């Protein structure tokens, strides 16, 4: 046996003055030489506590009260150290920590010190664990930065973390962890904070350096897609205990434990049939009452749950546009220079975006962080004013109205027709208002109904999102993330809006809760004939909820198509790159690491010929098939006539 | 960086100009001037005042001129290093102030250094051993220091020094050196007397600083980059000094500009109680008797301290923190 790490019967407790709280118990698993083991679990399951125990980085109040963590260093054959017995800040532990076992963290933004250069922080690690001089340490650092793919390793020694992009920071972090060539690398959610294309690059990088340095990897993640692509073996943690462990293939094909099965069933994947549903741990059954059944009124269709599935899937044919955005552009100005001579620079956030959302339809908007999708949603809400273009919205009168020229007072009637659900369920609810107040507030602001009506509406909304009406007097802090997001949805629905905009509504939630929320959104849309604009960076999520998908990159929509078409026949290189980069929790669809582009994917000037966007060419949207548009310059495509 | 320095220095000129105007206006705001106060006093004592003499004095002091001309003359004098003429003492301001300015500077700088030296180790101790007995003890002492008025502490100290040790700790030097030229013995005497006012004035500042350092450091200690540093295998002390402490320093450096005038104005009462030959008590009487050039000089001196303090802290911040240096528009 060449196990590097064997954890047996581990029990970690948080010892507080008046009580002891178990964090993990009865945890046993092993990590073989050059093996990748994934520790899978949802937030609060105790997976990070296990990694902290291995690193000797447990918080002061946490104690290993039982069990052992045996580390067999391949460099010193025959020796075995029980990490659980070592003094956490003693010299023995410190020699292992960072030297033989290294760790990379989730947040590349905050895990490097902003006051010290990359070179300083990497060289410090080398000098701690090896007897080398400054010049030699610098050489090793450059060597490692080259290995992790820094474009100019020598120069980057002198850069500060805030001068680098998120992907490069994570590479620097990896270089720092690996510079002492550890036997084991612990990666705690290493790609959760990164965009999909960067995530794929970092995953590929971890695989490459693992082979190069012949080390083992302990991967801590909640993302089963990452597990399927990376791990040899996986350990599933639930509530501080190991519920299942085994080879990744075996667990995926034949999950033994109910929890593993439900976890796998809760992840959206690509080849889901039109009627196939995610199965969350706990399903919410929305109940529609009399007040809400007429949501989306002004429409003759009284759609309820008896609408045939086929019609709900292709509402484009049956319906009229609710929102039509045409050639919308918005730039932000940054000032550079001193106060004598200042130079203003325009940074385009959204340029030439056209988008139509029809009644009863869900349009997905996909793009990476910084691509302008949130700016676009703010423009539609008229939280900002566009520089150019038009926003047509079908108001109560049934006529399409231009929103761009209206002032605050004129906008007021439209404000209640468009509602918004935010990404962060913790920040978007006022902690000093009860749930009742939160859901009633929009109605009060717009003077909808009398107090009787509002009370009835609140009760109905609580029923609708599956929350007990007895919770109405509670404050947001007593709810979980998923419950809070449901409160946010109830609040958005209280005005019976014509259009609901969701900005990454599930990205802060665990997969099983995400499945719950996504199913709820689908059911609500079907029952109440709602219209959604669904913004997300997660292609699989968008694929699950959306009828049509628009892909956005660098402020422009580069491709839009019905979802089946987009996934079957992606035309734009960026869409293709995105599709190649998404790790699916499916062993039949593993990432093809050779196809991942190194940072070129989201740079419009580096897209191949008909798609290139630079000073000389500014391609427009072209129709390639019915309802399928691509931003390209080709004579054989006809430009869409709007 | 050089252009930043130049720009920063350049900004100080209009700032000081504005302050000088404000100072002058504020001194002129109360009705009347030094002469009317003086006349009232004479009349109250039953002395007859010759109108010709008043006219003469008015002309001599330039009080018959319009305000803006008075200001221009005062400002022009300031630029040349001439602080003007004190009505009350009948002497040039610079002679009246004499050593007081320097003694004030010495006293206040010693106080600031005392605050830093005492509060840093205690702040670090309190933050790293949060909720320990030591932390609670220092917290209690800190609150006492904050709650007790400085002059009260001064009185208590004076009383016990006299009763228990039989010495007088008032003043900044032994009586025989007052109004004497500077000598080594006089300097030693100043050093001997300095500790008492420094401790008295410094306590509340120290207490406040400990609380702030503790809070800042506690914030930083929980940050992810500290965990990263531990994960490298650095020893806990090294981690503390290289990473979180360095980050926690920013607010202190940013504070230099504030702390100077704070200490100066906070020491006025203590100076009165302990009869210290500093600028504080003199500023007080000058304001009362509307001795405008004397008061103006003191206020300008305070303003200069603030502006220079701000400049020093800005430069230090830019030098210490690369984020400010490289992102805050310093580099261009």
Overview of the structural elements:
- The complex is a heterodimer of chains A (642) and B (332).
- Chain A is α/β, with parallel strands linked by helices.
- Helix content of chain A is 32%, strand content 25%.
- A nine-stranded mixed beta sheet of chain A has the order 16-17-18-13-19-20-22-21-23, with helices on both faces. Chain A has a six-stranded mixed beta sheet with strand order 6-7-8-3-9-10, sandwiched between helices.
- In chain A, a hairpin with a 4-residue loop joins strand 1 and strand 2.
- In chain A, helix 4 crosses helix 6, helix 7 packs across helix 22 and helix 16 packs parallel to helix 18.
- Chain B has two domains: 92 residues, no CATH class; 233 residues, MetI-like fold, CATH 1.10.3720.
- In chain B, helix 8 packs across helix 9 and helix 14 packs across helix 15.
- Chain B is globular.
- The interface between A and B is medium-sized, with 34 and 27 residues.
């Amino acid at each position: 046996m060449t196990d590097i790490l064997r954890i047996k019967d581990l029990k970690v407790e948080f010892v507080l003055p008046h009580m002891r709280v178990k964090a993990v118990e009865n945890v046993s698993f092993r990590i073989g030489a050059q093996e990748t083991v994934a520790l899978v679990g949802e937030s609060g399951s105790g997976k990070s506590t296990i990694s902290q125990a291995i690193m000797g980085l447990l918080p002061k109040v946490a104690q290993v009260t039982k069990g052992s963590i045996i580390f067999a260093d391949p460099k010193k054959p025959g020796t075995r150290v029980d990490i659980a017995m070592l003094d956490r800040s003693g010299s023995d532990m410190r020699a292992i920590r960072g030297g033989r076992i290294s760790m990379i963290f989730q947040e590349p933004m905050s895990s490097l010190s902003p006051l010290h250069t990359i070179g300083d922080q990497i060289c410090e690690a080398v000098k701690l664990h090896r007897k080398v001089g400054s010049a030699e340490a610098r050489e090793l650092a450059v060597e490692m930065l080259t290995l992790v793919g820094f474009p100019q390793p020598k120069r980057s020694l002198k850069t500060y973390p805030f001068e680098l992009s998120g992907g490069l920071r994570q590479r620097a972090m990896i270089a720092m962890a690996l510079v002492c060539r550890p036997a084991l690398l612990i990666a705690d959610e290493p790609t959760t904070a990164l965009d999909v294309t960067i995530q794929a690059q970092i995953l590929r990088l971890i695989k490459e350096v693992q082979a190069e340095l012949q080390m083992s990897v302990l991967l801590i993640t909640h993302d089963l897609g990452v597990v399927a692509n990376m791990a040899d073996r996986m350990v599933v943690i639930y509530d501080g205990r190991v519920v299942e462990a085994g080879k990744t293939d075996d667990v995926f094909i034949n999950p033994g434990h109910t929890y593993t099965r439900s976890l796998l069933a809760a992840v959206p994947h690509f080849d889901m049939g039109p009627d196939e549903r995610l199965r969350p741990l706990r399903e919410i059954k929305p109940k529609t009452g009399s007040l809400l059944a007429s949501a989306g009124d002004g429409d003759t269709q009284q759609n309820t749950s008896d609408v045939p599935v086929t019609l709900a899937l292709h509402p484009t044919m049956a319906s009229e546009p609710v929102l039509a955005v045409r050639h919308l552009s918005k730039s932000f100005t940054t000032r550079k220079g001193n106060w004598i001579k200042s130079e203003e620079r325009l940074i385009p956030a959204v340029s030439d975006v056209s988008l139509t959302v029809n009644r009863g339809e869900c349009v997905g908007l996909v793009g990476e962080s910084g691509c302008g999708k949130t700016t676009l949603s703010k423009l539609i809400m008229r939280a900002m004013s566009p520089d150019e273009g038009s926003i047509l919205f079908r108001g109560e009168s049934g006529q399409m109205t231009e929103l761009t020229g209206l002032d605050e007072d004129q906008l007021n009637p439209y404000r209640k027709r468009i509602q918004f659900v935010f990404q962060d369920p913790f920040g978007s609810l006022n902690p000093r208002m009860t749930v009742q107040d939160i859901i009633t507030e929009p109605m009060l602001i717009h003077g909808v109904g009398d107090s009787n009506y509002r009370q009835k509406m609140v009760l109905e909304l609580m029923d609708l999102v599956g929350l007990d009406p007895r919770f109405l007097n509670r404050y947001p802090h007593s709810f979980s993330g998923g419950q809070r997001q449901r409160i946010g949805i109830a609040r958005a629905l209280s005005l019976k809006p014509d259009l609901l905009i969701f900005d990454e509504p599930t990205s802060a939630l665990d997969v099983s809760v995400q499945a719950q929320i996504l199913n709820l959104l689908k059911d609500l849309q079907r029952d109440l004939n709602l219209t959604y604009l669904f913004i997300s960076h997660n292609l699989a999520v968008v694929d699950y909820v959306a009828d049509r998908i628009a892909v956005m990159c660098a402020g422009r929509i580069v491709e839009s198509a019905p979802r089946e078409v987009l996934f079957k026949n992606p035309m734009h290189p960026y869409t293709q790159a995105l599709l190649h980069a998404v790790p699916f929790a499916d062993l039949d669809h593993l990432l093809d690491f050779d196809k991942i582009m190194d940072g070129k994917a989201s740079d419009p000037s580096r897209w191949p010929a008909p798609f290139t966007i630079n000073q000389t060419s500014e391609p427009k949207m072209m129709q390639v098939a019915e309802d399928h548009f691509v931003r390209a310059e080709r004579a054989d495509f006809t430009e869409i006539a709007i | 960086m050089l252009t930043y320095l130049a720009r920063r220095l350049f900004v100080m000129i209009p700032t000081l100009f504005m302050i000088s105007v404000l100072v002058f206006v504020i001194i002129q705001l109360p009705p009347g001037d030094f002469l009317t106060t003086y006349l009232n006093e004479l009349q109250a004592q039953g002395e007859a005042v010759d109108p010709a003499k008043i006219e003469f004095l008015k002309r001599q002091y330039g009080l018959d001129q319009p305000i803006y001309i008075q200001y221009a003359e005062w400002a022009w004098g300031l630029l040349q290093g001439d602080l003007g003429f004190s009505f009350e003492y009948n002497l040039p301001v610079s002679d009246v102030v004499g050593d007081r300015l320097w003694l004030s500077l010495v006293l206040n700088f010693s106080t600031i250094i005392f605050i830093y030296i005492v509060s840093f180790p205690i702040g670090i101790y309190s933050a790293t051993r949060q909720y320990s007995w030591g932390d609670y003890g220092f917290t209690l002492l800190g609150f006492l220091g904050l709650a007790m008025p400085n002059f009260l502490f001064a009185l208590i100290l004076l009383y016990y020094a006299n009763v228990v040790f039989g010495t007088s700790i008032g003043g900044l030097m032994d009586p025989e050196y007052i109004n004497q030229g500077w000598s080594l013995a006089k300097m030693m005497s100043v050093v001997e007397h300095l500790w008492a006012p420094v401790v008295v004035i410094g306590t509340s500042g120290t207490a406040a600083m400990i609380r702030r350092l503790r809070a800042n450091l506690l914030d930083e200690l929980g940050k992810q980059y500290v965990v990263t540093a531990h994960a490298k295998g650095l020893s806990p002390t090294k981690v503390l000094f290289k990473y979180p402490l360095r980050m926690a320093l920013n607010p202190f450096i940013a504070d230099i500009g504030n702390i100077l005038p704070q200490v100066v104005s906070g020491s006025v009462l203590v100076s009165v109680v302990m009869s210290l030959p500093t600028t504080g008590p003199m500023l007080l009487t000058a304001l009362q008797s509307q001795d405008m050039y004397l008061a103006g000089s003191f206020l300008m001196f305070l303003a200069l301290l603030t502006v220079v303090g701000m400049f020093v802290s800005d430069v230090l911040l830019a030098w210490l923190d690369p984020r400010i240096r490289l992102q805050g528009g310093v580099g261009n």
